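In the laboratory, one determines a bound structure by crystallizing the protein with its ligand and collecting diffraction data. In a computational setting the workflow is compressed into a single prediction: the sequence and the ligand go in, and a structural description comes out. We illustrate the idea with NDP.
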Amino acid sequence: MAAEAHALQGRTAVVTGASSGIGAAIAERFAAEGAHVFLAGRTRARMEETAKRIRERGGQATVVALDVRDVRQVQELVEQAVHDTGRLDIMVNNAGLSHPQSIVDGEPEQWREMLEVNVLALLAGCQAAIRAMRRGSSPGHLVNVSSIAGASEARGVYGATKAAVDSIATQLRKELEEDPIRVVNVRPGAVATSFGRHYDPALVQGVAKSMGIEAQVEPGAHWPDALVQELERKVQPQFLSADDVARAVLFAVTQPPHVNVFDVVVRPQKALSI
Ligand code: NDP
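The predicted complex, in structure-token form:
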């Protein structure tokens, strides 16, 4: 249907963590629906590749390389989107990471990184977006990417950051009841992305091998696209694709302002047991 094909025509969307995984998939989905997307993350080259694909399909994309741990850069990102397009309709706070070590064995600097990226940057993104949306006249959506880990037992400091994200969404929903701004808290289960890039490479390679996949991964680096695609193909009942999550997010942000699709839990068919 033509109307559905361009559900976000004329809208502006900012997506953090858009250099891979769920963020890149959301950016591509939104752009395919007509939005001008601002892709933000540290790895410019990967975002440029996504932006190129978007433009080749007739979409609009702007790449902003930044580190969301610097909240000023998050605020400037939102301001740039408003300056360039005259509006902000959707803010997706998706950048996030997990250092999986136990609290007993973990490193405080890794806790700091998780707290700054998963929580502080998200708060700054929400605040900057709300202020920008209130200056405009159209309804808006804040999309915060949490995780089922926030409501699961014993998911380490990562789980604690996602519990904070869940709590922030509940608070913001209350604060924004009188505004045409809806809060969407997305809680995915296992998704085939580079998310495990801070896990022990030997563990990743062992798990991949048990699934019949040869994985070459460097600690902290984005996983090769071919590995992510192979994961998607071979282990589908236990992993969602990033686009599976993106489609759910698209549904939530295309509802009218009086409809709040607030808690979006998207899980694969089967639980992942490692
Ligand atoms: P990826 O590792 O593929 O993506 C994470 C994104 O966050 C990257 O684009 C990365 O970009 C960005 N990022 C990390 N640190 C920073 C930083 N300091 N500044 C700017 N950008 C940063 O993993 P996912 O796509 O899976 O993760 C996206 C979100 O989904 C996260 O919030 C994660 O917690 C959540 N999630 C993921 C699940 C999964 O199973 N994959 C399940 C549940 C939730 P770059 O490194 O280029 O800066």
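The pocket of NDP is lined by residues 16-23, 41-43, 67-69, 94-97, 117, 145, 147, 188, 190-191, 193-195, 197 (CB under 6 Å). Keep in mind that any predicted model is a hypothesis to be tested, not a measurement.
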